[in-house]
Amino acid sequence: MGKDGHWVPAVIEDVELTYSFEPHKAKKLKGQSWLYCTHCGLLYLRNPITKWCIKMGCNNSYHKQYKFMLKKLTK
Q1: Strand, coil or helix: 66
Q2: Stretch 6-29: mean pLDDT
Q3: pTM for this one?
Q4: Cβ(59)–Cβ(21) under 8 Å?
Q5: Burial 39-68 (b: 16+ CB within 10 A, else e)
Q6: What is the Cα Rg of the chain in Å?
Q7: How far is CA 37 from CA 1, 10, 23, 69, in A?
Q8: pLDDT: is 6 or 49 the higher one?
Q9: Beta carbons within 10 angstroms of residue 36's beta carbon
Q10: Where are the domains of the chain?
Q11: What secondary structure, in 3-state letters, does 46-65 show?
Q12: How far is it, in rounded angstroms, from Cα 20 to Cα 60?
């Protein structure tokens, strides 16, 4: 808890999260036309950043090019 009584996330120092490929586990949503990953929650939308995230797997946000691709593909 923080000083004001609100929850504060723990800070992990000196730990570098590294990218490793982990495939998505796609499942169909009831009554929707989209698939979603049951592991990471990614919705399979039809846009360039989603296609890149599907290709990179569930740990795509740890990939070294993630921030660059996010800026490039979401203009």
Answers
A1: helix
A2: 75
A3: 0.73
A4: yes
A5: eeebebeeeebeebbbebbbbbeebeebee
A6: 16
A7: 32, 26, 9, 20
A8: 49
A9: 18
A10: 26-73
A11: CCHHHHHHHHHCCCHHHCCC
A12: 8
